Amino acid sequence: MRRAAWLPLALAAAPAWAHDLPQTFGKGLAVLPGPLLLPLLSLGLMLAVSGRLRLLAGAVPAIPLGFVAAPWIGINADILALGAGLACAILATTGLPLAGTGHGALALGTALLAGAALTHGAGWLAMELSALLGLALAGTGAMALPPVLGLALLARWPVPARIGLRIGASWLAAIGALALSLTFAGPLP
Amino acid sequence: MTRMALLLALLVAPGAALAHAATTGGLVSGLSHPVLGLDHVVAMVAVGLWGAILGRPALWMLPVAFPLVMATGGVLGILGVPLPGVETAIALSGMALGLLVAFMVRLPIALACGIVGVFALFHGYAHGTELPASANPLAFATGFVTSTGLLHLVGVGLGGLVRGRPVLRMLGAGIALTGGAFLAGLA
């Protein structure tokens, strides 16, 4: 019963955010917030380092799915997305293998949470369809950038590129951890 | 040569005084923060140099371990968890890492990462305490992490470019002396 009381509260939070949300395709494409670039870039790097690029195909539709799931995830979607992104960045840095479908589940979860966070937990109803398209495209671009760059570099300089990707992942992990703690401490919205 | 050295000293000197002043900026402030603090610069370059001396996998593991642990220190700083002796530990890091380079000390990779990690915690804490006060904390964090990483790569690059052990030893000794000067309160 108490759990049910949270649902309207989470949904009610949406209209308060609505005026901050982009409402055109151009704005949707351009206003990808800095804190949400981190999980998407980290996810892309994890896929590039682990060599599981086919998982990108599953992560792309997870972003619009996140728009739909946003009201159920609520306004803490950004914290959850940052946490999932941090896990991706640490995996990319260490190169640790995950059992079974671990990488796939993490990739889908991160993309879904990032999608939800892109609407600030307000969900797809609070935004114009064109803006949602812009956001989805920007998110997909951010997610695909590290694998595309990584593949090109790995093909030409396999060893230095692998080291470079892992060093880049460690920087993303460091920035992600700081962004997460800044969100908890208050300075980041 | 003397003119170059004088110019370098003039460029670096104001930074030492400004390095830990209140920060109000974003990305540019974050990028310049480690570079303008000589105590930070020598320690970061020393990490890269030591990695180059130890060879693979330390060559990339030290520059990877440092930002990860530095972020942990940053988190402690942001959350206001008290950590004593931060400035002393930062000065000590320059001296200790400089000596490790000067004497070309070869340690097991786990121990090397541990030593670098301990110092990284204090460097991160120093940055972290200034983060919440900055105008754009995320941009500031991005800047100082990137700048720190680039300084490591400068160290790795120097280690790869410099031919001959005496030059590397001299670089290490210079770093140790700089760290010692900060430790003694002379810089």
Automatic annotation (TrEMBL), chain A:
Residues annotated as transmembrane: 28-48, 55-73, 79-99, 106-126, 132-155, 167-188
Identification of the protein by name: HupE/UreJ family protein
Signal peptide: 1-18
Keyword flag Magnesium: no
Highest taxon above the source species: Bacteria
Alphabetical keyword list: Membrane, Signal, Transmembrane, Transmembrane helix
Automatic annotation (TrEMBL), chain B:
UniProt cross-references to InterPro entries, sorted A to Z: HupE_UreJ
Swiss-Prot/TrEMBL keywords: Membrane, Signal, Transmembrane, Transmembrane helix
Pfam families in UniProt: HupE_UreJ
Signal peptide residue numbers: 1-21
Annotated transmembrane regions: 31-52, 59-79, 85-102, 109-126, 138-160, 167-186
Protein name, entry field: HupE/UreJ family protein
